Amino acid sequence: MTHFTKITAAGKPARVNAKAHAAVIDQRTGLMWTAKDVGTATFANAPTLIDDLNAKAFAGFTDWRLPTLQELFGIADHSRISPAIDTAAFPSCKGGWYWSSTVYASSPSDYAWLVSFYLGSAHCDLQGSVGRVRAVRSVSSPASGQ
User: Fold this and answer.
1) Cα three-residue angle 64-70-24, rounded to 5 degrees
2) Which sequence spans correspond to the domains of the chain?
């Protein structure tokens, strides 16, 4: 049984077996994720993709952000490969690298952390590299649909 609740484009819980959904809530963490990638960008341009999502009030919300490394790594499913993620919750997830908001401590102006959903691993790379972007937001509590 999955720990993700599917959310419609209107921001409401979807039917359990719904094929089309805009976002998912991870009931373990209380985080809501975009079901699809927001796009691809360099680390510096990733926030622009998130801003565009907020300007559209995606799924009814305007507080989307780039996830931390720990948050993003938390949705990796290490029992899967290519992609290493729950494909019922994230049906179009690519096995590529996804930006986190976490910069690399020893060189914070040059490197940032990414998560690969090919193997479910993490790696730091130059901030000028292009990676995929997935947005996240906090909900009022892990058990809520808000």
Assistant:
1) 45
2) 37-138
